[in-house]
Design a protein that fits this description.
Its EC number is 3.6.1.-. This is HMP-PP phosphatase. It is a single chain. By secondary structure, this protein is α/β, with parallel strands linked by helices. The chain is built from 10 helices and 13 strands. The strands form 2 sheets. A 7-stranded mixed β-sheet has the order 5-4-3-2-1-12-13, with helices on both faces. A 6-stranded mixed β-sheet has the order 8-7-6-9-11-10, covered by helices on one side. The C terminus is likely disordered.
């Protein structure tokens, strides 16, 4: 019996309108009633993810910033990792040949140089989380958990080559979404963060199940006792984890249907038709 369930948020637990469906909320509460540690594992900032969990009435654990921060179910920070100052300075000061916008995440919030389009803010309508205008080159080199570039995928692929050439193995690069490329501290991901959290709870990764849809979920899905890939997941993720079950789309609350079946018959194999 698994004792912890970790969920990516966007594209997994949340529907395309960035809401939690009623069936999903019901099954999350069933997990809590069964004594499972419910964990949101997201690229979102704590100030964005925590209000969503609170609105749902859940007192769960949080992995935020794609593993750069870990919080217990009382909101206490258990673990924090930032980009090394020299790496952050190189990313913030370099003039990248790209049209992608740069977004810097610090404990105090989300910093970006230009106002973000309204459609990009729709993802944060539940929490009210908003950007703060700041010139990246004037931000401190320390205290930056991650830097994100948002733009067209082809643009980001070109930028990825530039970043790799400049940073080498001093940082990890990850596509958290098709249009979002992130610069993260080396070895910092949802998988390593979940391992730290499970150890804090006296569990092993074999005691955990996890759900995800993007490349920032790869390490977590591969390391847990039972990983589950969304039907709407990035093709690259599916190809890298062919051994894991693939369920339905987030718009159909596929996580809820999967878990409802598992709670009824934990020893049975799930099929999307059930």
């Amino acid at each position: 019996m698994y004792r912890l369930a970790a969920f990516d948020m966007d594209g997994t637990l949340l529907m395309p309108d960035h809401r939690v469906g009623p069936e999903t909320l019901a099954v999350l509460n069933q997990l809590v009633e069964r004594g499972m540690a419910v964990t949101f594992a997201t690229g979102r900032h704590y100030l964005d993810a925590q209000p969503i969990m609170a609105q749902l009435g859940l007192q769960g654990y949080l992995i935020t910033g794609n593993g750069t921060r870990v919080y217990d179910n009382q909101g206490r920070q258990l673990h924090a990792t930032d980009l090394p100052g020299e790496v952050a300075e190189r990313v913030l000061q370099h003039r990248w040949r790209t049209e992608a916008s740069m977004h810097v995440f610090r404990d105090e919030g989300w910093m970006t140089e230009f106002a973000v389009p309204e459609e990009m803010l729709l993802a944060h309508h539940l929490s009210g989380f908003r950007f703060q205008l700041a010139e990246p080159r004037r931000l401190p080199a320390t205290g930056n958990s991650k830097v994100c570039f948002v733009g067209a995928h082809e643009e980001l692929l070109e930028l990825q080559e530039q970043l790799q050439a400049q940073l080498g193995d001093a940082a990890d690069l990850c596509f958290s979404a098709y249009e979002c490329l992130e610069v993260l501290p080396v070895g910092c991901n949802k998988g390593s963060a979940l391992e730290a959290l499970s150890g804090h709870l006296g569990l092993t990764m074999a005691d955990c199940m996890a759900f995800g849809d993007a490349m920032n979920d790869k390490e977590m899905l591969a390391a847990v006792g039972h990983g589950v890939v969304m039907g709407n997941a990035l093709p690259q993720l599916k190809s890298l984890l062919p051994q894991l079950p693939v369920i339905g789309h987030c718009r159909q609350q596929a996580v809820a249907h999967y878990l409802a079946h598992w709670l009824r018959s934990p020893g049975l194999t799930y099929s999307p038709e059930l």
